[in-house]
Design goal:
Order of helices and strands: HHEEHEEEE
Helix content: 10-25%
Distance between the termini: 32 Å
Number of strands: 6
CATH class: Alpha Beta
CATH topology: Nuclear Transport Factor 2, Chain: A
Strand content: 35-45%
Largest sheet: 6 strands, mixed
Radius of gyration: 17 Å
CATH architecture: Roll
Strand order of the largest sheet: 2-1-6-5-4-3
Length: about 180
Amino acid sequence: MTRASAVVPVGSPTYNEVVGWLYAEAELLDDGLEARWLEEMVSEEIIYRVPLRQTVERARGTGFAEAAYHLDETYGSLGSRVARNQTAYAWAEDPPSRIRHFVSNVRVSPGDGEDELAVRSNLLILRTRQDQTVPQMFAGERHDVLRREAGVLKLHRRTVLLDLTVIGTHNLAIFF
């Protein structure tokens, strides 16, 4: 069995640490504490991507673009988004959306690096804006790499594979 194919058992200390990390991340994002999320939970070497999806036949692959993204972010671009949301000029998010992250089906395995963990999880985000009565929903799977930096788990890579082929929202000012 290779290192990457090994599974971290459910209920083990490492698994529980990862699940706790995912829940803490969801809480910070739901509470609008994006600056704290970025500073405390995200590696400065982050690669954060949401590839485009199209509907294709099984024989043509997964349907995810390999070089086209809704979001293709670095620490600097995430920092710019966070900083902008804290200004009076973030019209897309003023008043801010109400967000709820639901994380489930967490699977953890050792990552490629010594201090890395590969984490797959399902994600459902409910978002309401202003006085909308019908929430926007984003569902998909996240493929994360968490890396221990100075003893703390940090998000090193995130790829979000959305179930939607067309995103019916006015903006993508949220964090997955």
